[in-house]
Structure formats: C-alpha cells, structure tokens
Amino acid sequence: IESSLANACEAELCSPGNGLGIPGLTFACYALHHVVMNHCLEDGNKRLAWIVFTDALARMQLTIAATQDESADFVERVVVERLTPDKIMEWIYPRLAVLFRPDHTTS
User: pLDDT per residue over 75-97, tens digit each?
Assistant: First the structure.
C-alpha cells in the first residue's frame, strides 16, 4: 500500500495541471488505480481503493455523484479494462460534486 500511495504522490508532484486544475485530483485517481492494480491485499483491493479515493476527495471537499452500483461497476471496469489513471479521471470529472459546506456566517 505504501508504494502505491507513494507512486500516486509522485504523479501528483510530477504532473502539475494534469488533475484538470484541481490540486489533489491526480493523486486520488492514481491512488485508485495503483491500489486496485497492485493487489496490495489478499482480498478487498477494490474496496480499499475506493475508500482511499473517496477519502482523498473528501479532504478536498469533493465527492462523487454516483450510486453505489455505478461506483462498484466503475471500479470493476478499472480492473477488467485495465483503465489508466487518465481514463479514471475522465469518468470521475463529470461526476465530481462539492461536499456540503455549512455556512459559518453570523447574522
């Protein structure tokens, strides 16, 4: 897992602007790809990859507007079709949504 995340960090650092102008998006997509494809665990790689991915997005105040079934089908496609991080980003980008931010203004 450490090398998969390190590779994702390296991709983020070496590819400025590759994340469609969203800092951290390259890391999130590469992390999803590497955790799934590197078989970090004996079982549960797809679930772990999705958790790492969505946690990275949440730290950027982002989430994915997709159902559980759509998300599971997509992660399965990453494995079966051997999707690259760029292809992952293509699927993710139109589904990005801003997490709820409470209004901290006072009246």
Answer: 999 999 999 999 999 999 999 99
* pTM of the shown model: 0.84
DSSP letter (8 states) at residue 21: T
Locate 49 and state its tokens.
């990859």
User: Is residue 32 within 8 Å of residue 78, measured between CB atoms?
Assistant: yes
Could you please report the per-residue DSSP string of 37-84? HTT-SSS-HHHHHHHHHHHHHHHTTEEE---HHHHHHHHHHHHHTT--
Q: Cα(1)–Cα(48) distance, rounded to whole angstroms? A: 10
Asked whether 33 and 83 are in contact (CB, 8 A), the reply is yes
